[in-house]
Write a structure and sequence with these properties.
The chain is α+β, with helices and mostly antiparallel strands. It has 2 domains: 150 residues, Adenine-n6-DNA-methyltransferase TaqI, Chain A, domain 2; 43 residues. It contains 6 helices and 12 strands. It is globular.
């Protein structure tokens, strides 16, 4: 395995490697019962960093995909939550990778799309970098006051990140994904054990 030389890693601001595109304001009266076009809102970015476009889904007329074609999101786009509720913020500054599930997805105004400015950074690495303790602590500085918390484009692009070489980034991404897989399997195992325990307990009571 490659031995990393952390002393050679660069400390940069997010704005040094990418830009942030704001979304478009959608009116609640534009929502319809069903279609193939969905509004991507901050709640579609889940606290664990996953993307769920069908969470509390908000459908829009299909002609909106042409009307707002400059705000369409596609598979693999990296987006970040710019708003959260004060008191118990869960998604403020959380990044995730878009999965369209075959829908047309329109980017809402409080969802920021990160657009790379250089080939020297991997999008998957950037997602993990934005979930680091340093970045989370940086965003916490803006988590005070009011009912709703908002991050500005400037505040997000000033977030500090560490930048290894592109080769090292890809290696780290594979390591992070392996660790995530182990964590997921462990949680699933614990859930199954808990269900088994409840089942055995219920059986004992019945017998």
């Amino acid at each position: 395995m490659k031995i990393f030389n952390k002393n050679e890693w660069k400390k940069v601001k997010l704005g040094d490697v990418c830009d942030l595109r704001n979304g478009v304001a959608i009116k609640s009266e534009d929502y319809i019962i069903n279609s193939n076009t969905l509004n991507c809102r901050m709640s579609n970015i889940r606290p664990d960093g996953t993307f769920d476009i069908l969470y509390n889904a908000k459908y829009l007329p299909d002609n909106f995909s042409e009307k707002y074609k400059n705000y369409l999101l596609k598979n693999g786009d990296l987006v970040i939550a710019m708003t959260d509720m004060a008191g118990d913020p869960k998604i403020l500054g959380v990044p995730t990778v878009v999965k369209s599930n075959g829908f047309n997805i329109i980017q809402n105004q409080r969802v920021g799309k990160l657009e790379l400015l250089t080939d020297n950074i991997d999008e998957n690495y950037l997602k993990f970098a934005l979930q680091s303790k340093n970045v989370k602590n940086y965003f916490k500085k803006f988590s005070a006051g009011g009912v709703q918390l908002n991050l500005s484009k400037k505040e997000i692009l000033n977030a500090p990140i560490v930048l290894p070489t592109i080769e090292e980034q890809k290696i780290l991404v594979n390591l992070f994904k392996t660790i995530e897989s182990f964590i997921y399997l462990r949680k699933k195992e614990l859930l199954n054990l808990n269900l088994l325990n409840k089942s055995l307990f219920t059986t004992m009571l019945v017998n």
